[in-house]
Amino acid sequence: MAKFSVVICCANAADTLEAACRSAKWADELVVVDSGSTDATAEIAQRYADIYKVEPWRGYSKQKEYGASLASHDWVFILDSDEVISDGLASEIKALTDDALAGSDVFLMRRRNHVMGRYVRAWSPDWQSRLIHRDRVTWSDDVLHEDRLPASPDRVGRLTGRLEHKPTDVTGFADYFSGARMDERLLAVARQMHAKGKRCGIFDLVFRPRFAFWKFYLLKGGILDGAFGLLIAQKAAVSTQLKYAALWAVQHGLDETGHRQDDDSSAS
Predict the structure, then answer these.
(1) Residue 31's domain spans which residues?
(2) 266 located within any domain
(3) I need a labelling partner for 123 at 20 to 30 A (CA). Which of 68, 82, 229, 233 fits?
(4) Strand segments (E) across the chain
(5) pLDDT at position 168
(6) How far apart are CA 106 and CA 114, in angstroms?
């Protein structure tokens, strides 16, 4: 019978961490990696965690890979501090047979996202690679949305249970629509896009934001959620426009201040 570890990487997550930890009670072990909290996160984590570790932030993927390395068991569930493992998903994982586990490196599950306490229809099904055999996956180097990849596509299992993201957060407007929060991520994402060979032209600036809006408003069903669905689609359009604007700046050698990175004139 396989044993499972749940790994949570967090910082200043006192508002949501307890619910995340409670949802991991089914697991054989809980590992919490704290990247330097100044609120009650440490106190909450130490009430629930079998292993609690303070570790400086390494980046989204590297921090979680480090957390997985601390686990006592090879099968690891990667859980964010603002997520909850549903009872159905927990039961499904515990019922996995040895044959099912032997034939898979990673299991995917759908995540239900919430903003301001409301389910975001347009973001579903949002498949997540959270249950992994840590020795049989490759970790992606994405700066924002990390992923775990199997040795081959046929070694991926799918679960029907749901992962709930921010299910109780009713004050999330400022967080989700925060310009400052978006700004701090834009250049990192744009630089990675540029390093992978992506470039921004007029087509990208004109049409990609529009396509993002209609994708989430019509194709993904945001229109069915009234004004809330409209807000989600508008945010997608704005995020896309800013991402490609940042890519344009990077490919023209500009930094976050609008100056060329090789401009030494200010030193004179």
Answers:
(1) 4-165
(2) no
(3) 68
(4) 4-10, 29-34, 51-54, 75-80, 83-85, 106-115, 118-119, 127-133, 137-139, 148-150, 156-165
(5) 76
(6) 25
